[in-house]
Design brief:
Blueprint (H helix, E strand, L loop, with lengths): L13 H9 L4 E4 L1 H8 L7 E4 L3 H7 L3 E5 L4 E6 L2 E7 L1 E4 L9 E4 L3 H6 L8 E3 L5 E3 L3 H6 L2 E2 L5 H7 L2 H13 L2 E2 L1 H10 L8 H12 L4 H11 L12 H7 L10 H11 L7 H7 L4 H19 L4 H21 L6 H9 L13 H6 L7 H15 L7 H13 L1
Parallel strand pairs: 2-5, 10-11
Antiparallel strand pairs: 1-2, 1-8, 3-4, 4-5, 6-7, 8-9
The structure holds adenosine-5'-triphosphate (ATP) and magnesium ion.
Adenosine-5'-triphosphate binds next to α7.
């Protein structure tokens, strides 16, 4: 089959393929960009595969960078952009269930497509839009089916991360996973423990941000794959409950992980250790620690002003979006107007700071400074004190004499 009109994003990359062809090599767009073009979805990145060996690619283009030359990837710089070009390759060895012991460059496209995970990811496309489909990926795409290329058992043994990729694509694309592929996951789920948590985390987050999280979770539950993810083992019922929701998709990582934590009824003091086990960043942990309590406040319809202030506008938005998953949400406009009602939105807006208190010798350096500032802030938030420098200094003076 041939796609007559390629999306604009391919325009600037087509001449690169043409140049490789002119030099006598084969060159194709491969992987996700072909799949997403056929689905009419947004294209994230363009991957190019070629029969030219890395040194040959480098001799054809003026400006290149060796980004991953040992795996066959060279970046070609053109039109102020970088294009990753990877030599057709086969992989062998996989003794550790996660990466090949050996990568061999080959001249055959089919060999390259064979090492790819799922049939819908094993499509290639010429620069003129002609699609090469060696493994029936087009009919799987039409039938909304995720199916391993070759024997699922072998493929999951080679690289156990592919099981997480299967469930994330089920969620992201809202596709079913073919029965034999599901069986392959059930039989090999335990191998996921061999995979670095960082890689499992990436797939889990993509799953949680997909169109049909419930579909991805359902397969994780059915196959037992969830048991080999960090800290999910004892939460079968909670995850099953979450899989009943149909208010997807969420729109950012904070919402994604907050949603998982709320579903698990994890006590607030366990949030940090849970997210650390997933090797998430300190920034994300800090955001989730604001959002999760706010989801619970939305559920109870009770917010203190301090909490609303501490959560911030984005945090409140994220919390209400997460609350939607559980049907606990408030009207966003109600939440927004409650927030707008706060006299100040940021501690920098408080008309007094620690330095003022120290300079006037109202408090001694140490924890007393923060404590007094917090008290002033709370009074301002509740309208008990105006946000006025003199008035706040006066109050602080009085407190210090008590
Ligand atoms: P996304 O839109 O999320 O980037 P993608 O399909 O492009 O989806 P990538 O992780 O960018 O996914 O990988 C690009 C391609 O490389 C895939 O489409 C697939 O052909 C191949 N691939 C990636 N990871 C694996 C893997 N673990 N095993 C086999 N093939 C893989
Ligand atoms: Mg990609």
């Amino acid at each position: 089959m041939k796609i007559e009109k390629l999306p604009k994003i391919f325009d600037s990359a087509r001449p690169i393929l043409q140049q490789l062809e002119k030099a006598g090599y084969e060159a194709y767009f491969v992987g996700g960009c072909v799949r997403d073009t056929l689905l009419g979805d947004k294209i994230h990145d363009i991957d190019i595969a070629t029969s030219a060996y890395p040194e040959e690619v480098k001799s054809i283009f003026k400006r290149t960078v060796d980004t991953g030359i040992e795996h066959g990837t060279v970046m070609v710089l053109a039109n102020n952009q970088g294009y990753e070009i990877t030599t057709f390759r086969t992989e062998s060895g996989y003794q550790d269930y996660r990466r090949p012991d050996k990568v061999t460059f080959v001249r055959s496209l089919k060999e390259d497509l064979k090492r790819r995970d799922f049939t819908i990811n094993a499509l290639a496309m010429k620069e003129n839009g002609e699609v090469i489909d060696e493994f029936d990926g087009l009919s799987d795409l039409k039938n909304h089916l995720i199916r391993a290329v070759g024997y699922p058992d072998t493929r999951f043994h080679e690289d156990a991360l592919r099981m997480m990729r299967a469930v994330r694509f089920a969620s992201r694309l809202d596709f079913k996973i073919d029965a034999q592929t599901v069986q392959g996951i059930a039989d090999n789920a335990a191998l996921l423990s061999k995979i670095a948590v960082e890689r499992t985390q990436v797939e889990m987050q993509k799953l949680l941000l997909g169109q049909n999280v419930s579909a991805g979770l359902a397969v994780m539950l059915k196959t037992g794959l969830y048991q080999y993810c960090p800290a999910l083992k004892d939460y079968k019922n909670e995850l099953s409950q979450l899989a009943l929701s149909n208010h997807w998709p969420l729109d950012n990582a904070t919402q994604a992980w907050s949603c998982l934590i709320v579903a698990m009824y994890l006590p607030e003091k366990e949030i940090t250790s849970f997210l650390r086990r997933w090797k998430l960043s300190n920034k994300l942990i800090a955001d989730v620690k604001k959002v999760v309590p706010a989801v619970n406040s939305i559920k109870r319809r009770s917010f203190t002003r301090e909490q609303m202030f501490a959560t911030g506008q984005q945090g409140l938005y994220d919390a209400n979006r997460v609350a939607t998953i559980f049907n606990w949400n408030m009207l966003q406009s109600e939440l927004d107007s409650a927030y707008q009602y706060l006299p100040i939105k940021d501690s920098k807006q408080l008309a007094i700071n620690g330095a003022d208190l120290l300079k006037a010798q109202i408090v001694k350096p140490g924890p007393a400074v923060g404590k007094l500032l917090q008290e002033l802030l709370t009074n301002v938030l509740y309208g008990k004190l105006p946000n006025n420098h003199e008035k706040l200094m006066e109050y602080a003076q009085e407190r210090s004499h008590e």
